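Reminder: ligand-aware prediction takes two inputs, not one.
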Amino acid sequence: MSTPAKRKAGSPPPDSAPPAKPTPFSPQSPGSEGKSPTPGPASPAKSPSVGPGSPSAETSGAFSGAHWIQQGLPQVDSDDTDSALGSDIESSTVSISSSILNYRTINGRTYHSGSVTDGEYWAPNDQKMLGALEIYYHSIFLMMDEQLFQAPLKDDIKHAIDIGTGEGFWAIDFADKFPNCELVGTDISPIQPQWCPPNLHFEIDDATKEWTFKENFFDYIHISFLNGAIENWGNLYKQAYRCCKPGGWVEHLDCSPIVSCDDETLPPDSALATYGKIMAEAGRRIGRSLTIAHDGTQEPGLKDAGFVNLHTKEWKQPMSPWPKDPKQKEIGLYNYAAVTSDLEGVIQFLFQQVMGWSTEEITIFAAHMRQEMKEQKIHGYWTWKVVYGQKPEDAE
Ligand SMILES: C[S@@+](CC[C@H](N)C(=O)[O-])C[C@H]1O[C@@H](n2cnc3c(N)ncnc32)[C@H](O)[C@@H]1O
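Here is what comes back for the chain with S-adenosylmethionine:
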């Protein structure tokens, strides 16, 4: 897992700020143990072709960038938007070594340095995206009933690791909860804060490389929100198994960008329906699936690696504050704030570099998607799935 770039994370970016602590919310969970809220799409076949322009059934017609140019910018009908909710939405949208910092720049957005990994991770690592990730973290935390993990961890665990830690929000909260546990958070971008609990440190590390952590070492290995980042999940799970202590736990939480809907309010030619299809196709083209939660990758992969005692849980994350239930509404509100605060950042690399859309096509498409989310007529949600499992107590 080590790279020449492996190091302790350095100074925070000048404008970085401490993560906001999650706020309380009203209880009620849609989580359902072991069963899917809606059937997901069939596992996509992996396409070796990477790059713009390869036509497919899913990217024709309404799913092409040209279609969105023909549509023009969306008309904003004030009657369509609940003004009270609308104002809620507006007001909630708040807020080394030198080669590691040698970020790639595409259309004014920065991405991780090519010196850290051979792969190209699709999300920017600049302040705009980091701000969005902070809000995503809060929405996910609410969705999971304010639980940081699902595995039955003992209070006296000693060593844990967070793979692809991002800005380290989860890692900081976990380190606070387990002050006697040494936690390491790894990532390919040095975007972690310098201030953090004394039992936490960060390392720049590519999780797709051979892990150099000790064998049989970690009591807990946490993997979260790495869709589109990993080509070979089986290989990563095997590394995790090797470095996990016998009796220790691994946990992988991930999602799919496919928008699901239970009440037929999602038109197939909507921007929201298009979004999931284009993201899924882009993941296929780069050979790193973005639809982990739908692909059925987690359970068999962890089982093949040797983990036992596997458990699965799924959640529906409303994509805007359309639900009536107050807790679901709040989750949706944060999700809306996260997505709309940097939708262009989420789609730019995949839609443009991989699928070949123009900047104008992306801009108009994003305006339609934001408008659909704001109107809340579409009762869509994203699916998150966690699978956790244990290394056998008697493993060698
Ligand atoms: C969407 S963020 C998720 C951050 C955090 N795990 C969370 O759940 O909020 C994905 C993170 O994975 C990191 N990443 C992508 N590819 C990686 C790799 N090969 N090894 C380690 N980290 C990686 C990215 O830099 C980014 O910070």
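The two ends are 21 Å apart (CA to CA). The pocket of S-adenosylmethionine is lined by residues 112, 117, 121, 123, 133, 137, 164-166, 170, 186-189, 206-208, 224-226, 229 (CB under 6 Å). We will return to this case in the review session.
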